[in-house]
């Protein structure tokens, strides 16, 4: 059985719109990305979200032209 804190975290994440995704990627790419994020002092999740949002904006900008 999950703890009360785990349940609270799950409810918060659902309400705030957070979700977990899983992707299969080449080990060398994943390890190099983790190392690069570590060197830059950024979280992997934060960097992925930043790159995803930049890509979305780029595509939407292209679609609107």
Layout of secondary structure:
Blueprint: H1 4-16, H2 27-40, H3 44-64
Question: Could you walk me through the main structural features you see in this protein, from its secondary elements to its overall organization?
Answer:
By secondary structure, this protein is mostly helical. The protein has 3 helices and no strands. The chain has helices at 4-16, 27-40, 44-64. The protein is extended.
Radius of gyration: 16 Å
Number of strands: 0
- Supply the number of helical segments: 3
Cα end-to-end separation: 52 Å
Task: Report the mean per-residue pLDDT as an integer.
Answer: 93
What summary fits the major beta sheet?
none
In percent, how helical is the residue content? over 70%
Q: What are the low-pLDDT stretches, counting only 5+ consecutive residues below 50? A: none
Structural class by secondary-structure content: mainly alpha
Beta content: under 5%
Order of helices and strands: HHH
Assign an overall shape: extended
Can you describe this structure in just a few lines?
This protein is mostly helical and 65 residues long. Helices cover 74% and strands 0% of the residues.
Quickly list its features.
mainly alpha; extended; 65 residues; 3 helices; 74% helix
């Amino acid at each position: 059985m999950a703890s009360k804190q785990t349940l609270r975290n799950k409810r918060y994440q659902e309400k705030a719109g957070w979700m977990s995704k899983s992707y299969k990627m080449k080990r060398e790419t994943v390890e190099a990305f983790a190392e690069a994020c570590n060197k830059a002092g950024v979280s992997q999740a934060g960097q992925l979200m930043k790159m995803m949002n930049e890509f979305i904006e780029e595509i939407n900008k292209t679609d609107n032209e």
